[in-house]
Amino acid sequence: MIFVTGDTHGSIDFSKLRKFADENSNLSKKDYVIIAGDFGGVWNSKTLDKTLAHYEALPFTVLFVDGNHENFDILDTYPVEFWNGGKVHKIRPDIIHLMRGQIFELEGKTFFTFGGASSTDKCMRNDHESWWAQEKPNFDELGEAIENLKKHNNEVDFIITHTCDEKALYYPPLYVPPVMPTVYPENSMLSLFEDTVKYKHWYFGHYHKDAQLYTEKTVLYQKIIRIV
């Protein structure tokens, strides 16, 4: 089985995963829960092992795309490996970072992943301590995404990102009139996939809300939903 949820922020929002595991005794490491960014389990080198131990103790395998609240200095020290069709960082055998612009094949379904976002609280954070410039997707990653999508004829089953495309910003609950949404460069970048990729459903986190924007797009935070 494959499930998807929103941000976990290390230990801050971890409890939803523990509760989910307790309520589903049939889960095993062959099952996947995908975190749509802001995993946060790779954050502080001094507490890394302790934090990850909680995730390792879960009965399922944790997959995640990166968000804006990740320690990219540590994340980038892990070697890049190929796993189920795309590039990953294997943080632990059962904790895997799905890198940007990749397509993975899991249980007969295709998943396109593209993490990253801008921190709205950047002014309150310190460079290379609580904020990293790598949080924003770059054009090399975009180019790799385009090439990988071409190999799949621009068609996948699911898109998993941290933030969303520009169009999604104008749907409730993200858009609350009369305040106009703030459009960041990565929202415009993700619009390219909205315009060119055929997909069944798009899931993202970042906004700390649980809602279906329209038929093909869902924002997640606390909910954990099964998709396969």
Placed side by side, the strands forming the largest sheet appear as: 4-5-6-3-2-1-13
Total number of distinct structural domains = 1
**Beta-strand percentage range:** 25-35%
Give the C-level CATH assignment.
Answer: Alpha Beta
Q: How far apart are the termini?
A: 6 Å
User: What would the CATH topology be?
Assistant: Purple Acid Phosphatase, chain A, domain 2
Task: Note down, in words, how this protein is organized.
- This protein has 228 residues and is of the alpha/beta class.
- It has a single domain, classed as Purple Acid Phosphatase, chain A, domain 2 (4-Layer Sandwich).
- The chain is built from 5 helices and 13 strands.
- It has a 7-stranded mixed beta sheet with strand order 4-5-6-3-2-1-13. A 6-stranded mixed beta sheet has the order 7-8-9-10-12-11, covered by helices on one side.
- Helix 2 links the parallel strand 2 and strand 3.
- It is globular.
At a glance:
The chain contains five helices and 13 strands.
Break the fold down into its secondary structure elements and pairings.
Blueprint lengths: L1 E4 L9 H9 L8 E5 L11 H9 L4 E5 L6 H4 L4 E4 L2 E7 L2 E4 L3 E5 L2 E6 L24 H13 L6 E4 L23 H12 L4 E4 L6 E4 L2 E3 L4 E3 L2
Parallel strand pairs: 1-2, 2-3, 3-6, 8-9, 9-10, 10-12
Antiparallel strand pairs: 1-13, 4-5, 5-6, 7-8, 11-12
